[in-house]
Write a structure and sequence with these properties.
The chain has about 70 residues and is an all-alpha fold. The chain is built from two helices and no strands.
């Protein structure tokens, strides 16, 4: 069961990175380096997706474990 969870986590992380890359990185580069704005946007995108479950769990815990969405 642990292997399945690890594989699912790896797949989710790969999809997250690809999604954020598509949303934030320009396809019209003249150099092999990212601009500062692209770096910031990419990191913000990844952070948003990684932090979302933490926020949801915090709300659920504040409600005494009862989901009330």
């Amino acid at each position: 069961m642990e292997r399945i969870a690890m594989e699912a986590q790896a797949m989710l992380t790969t999809q997250l990175i690809e999604t954020c890359k598509e949303k934030t990185i320009s396809r019209k580069h003249n150099s092999d380096q990212l601009s500062e704005s692209e770096k910031t946007a990419f990191m913000n995108c990844c952070t948003k997706y990684f932090e979302t479950p933490n926020h949801i769990m915090a709300v659920i815990q504040q409600q005494g474990g009862q989901p009330g969405f």
